Amino acid sequence: MNEDRASRYHRLKRQASVISLLLGVLLLAALLATGLSASLRNAAAAMAGGSPALTILFYVALFSLINELFGLPLSFYTGFLLERRYDLSNETLRTWMADQAKSFGIAVALGGAAASILYWCMRVSPDHWWILAGAAFALLIVGLTNLAPIVLLPLFYSMKPLDRDGLRMRLLALADRAGARVLGAYEWGLASKTKKANAALAGIGATRRILVSDTMLAEYSDDEIEVVLAHELAHHVHGDIWKGILFESALILGGFYLASRVFAALSAPLGLHGVDDVAGLPLLLLAAGGVSLIMVPVAHAMSRAFERQADRFALDLTRNPSAFITAMRRLGAQNLAEEHPSKIVQGLFYSHPPIRERIAAAQAFRA
User: 211, 208, 209, 172: which is closest to 188 by C-alpha?
Assistant: First the structure.
C-alpha cells in the first residue's frame, strides 16, 4: 500500500467532512438569525393554500433545495473530483449528477415524511412531543433498515442473483453454520461507479441477503470472499444491527429532549409561533445534531469493538486466517486504506479498526 497517497486522500476527505459540518451549522444558524426560515415557512404556507400538513411538506422541499445547493460544490469535490484524482472512481459526471438527483429526491421524500410525523407529535403533545417522536423515529429506523436492500439500494446499484453456483452454495452454507437465515446471495454492481470492493449482509428479518460486489468477485478468491462474509454474518449473529438501532434511537430521543428545552428558551426571541412552527426546524436540527456530534467518539468506539468481535468470529468460523490476512491486504490496497491513522483520528473518524491492527489480530490467531 502507498501509505503517503492513502494518507493524503483520507486527510483531504476528513478536512472536507469538517468543512461540510461547519458550513451546515452556519447555514442553519443563518436561516434562523436572518429570518429566512420564517420567510420559507410563509412561502410554503402560500403554496399550500394554508394547509398545515402541506405547509410542512413544501417547507421541507424548499429547505432541502437550499441545503443541496449550498453543499453541492463540496459534494462535487469529495464525491467526484477527489475520487477520480485518486483513481478510485469509474463514475461519469452524468451518472454522478443522476445519483445526486436521486439522493435529493429521497431526502425530500423521507424528510417530508419525518417532519410530518414530528410536527404531528408536537401538535398532539406540545410538552412531551419528544417522547412520542423518539418512539416514532425508532420505528422509522427499523423500517428503513428492513427496506433498504429491496427499495433504496436498487435505485443506485444493479442487483442480480450470484451466478457462481459453487460460491453461492458455499456462502449460503456459511450462513447456516453461523445461524443467520438469509434469503439468497446477490451480485452487487459497484464496478460502474467505483474501483473499491465491498461485501455486506443487508436488511433484517425477511429482507436479509448476502451482497458481494462485482469488484470483489473479479479479484478475490472464494476463500477470501467467504471469510469477509463470515465477518458480516457476525454482526447479525451478535445482534450488532439491533444494538446500533437502539443506540441511534437513544441519540435521537436525547436530541429531541434537548431540542424541546431549547425551543422553550428560544422560540419567542426567534419569533417562532410555537413549538410546532415549522420555521423552527433549523433550531431542532442544531440541537439534535449537537447531541449526535458529541457522541461521535462513543459511537465509533462501540463500532470498532463490534468490528473486532466480528473479525474474531470470522476467524473462528472459517479457521482460515491466511485468507483473512490476504483479503484485508487486498481491501486495504484496493480501497486505499490508511495504514497508520493517529489515535485521535481513529476516535473521531474511524468506525473500523485500522487494517494493520486487523491483520495483526489474524496473525496472532494463526500463531
Answer: 211
Q: What amino acid is encoded at 64 in this protein? A: S
Q: How far is CA 98 from CA 91, 103, 104, in A?
A: 11, 9, 10
DSSP 3-state of 364: helix
Q: Can you tell me which residue has the cell 494493520?
A: 356
User: Count of residues for the chain?
Assistant: 367
Q: Please write the tens of the pLDDT for every residue from 127-149.
A: 999 999 999 999 999 999 999 99
Q: Which of 225, 247, 245, 239 is nearest to 180 (CA)?
A: 239
Other CB atoms closer than 10 Å to residue 161's CB: what's the count?
Answer: 10
CA distance 187 to 214: 6
**Residue type for position 73:** P
Q: How far, CA to CA in Å, does 246 sit from each of 134, 201, 243, 252, 304?
A: 11, 19, 5, 10, 17
The two beta strands, 185-189 and 158-161, are antiparallel
The reply to whether the predicted model has a pTM over 0.85 is yes
Instruction: Calculate the average pLDDT of the chain.
Output: 95
Of 362, 291, 293, 356, residue with least CA distance to 329: 356
| Residue 60 and residue 69 in contact, taking contact as beta carbons nearer than 8 Å | no
**Gap between the Cα atoms of 194 and 188, Å rounded:** 12
The alpha carbon of residue 49 and the mean position of all alpha carbons in its chain are separated, in whole angstroms, by 36
Q: 44: closest CA among 53, 56, 27, 32?
A: 56
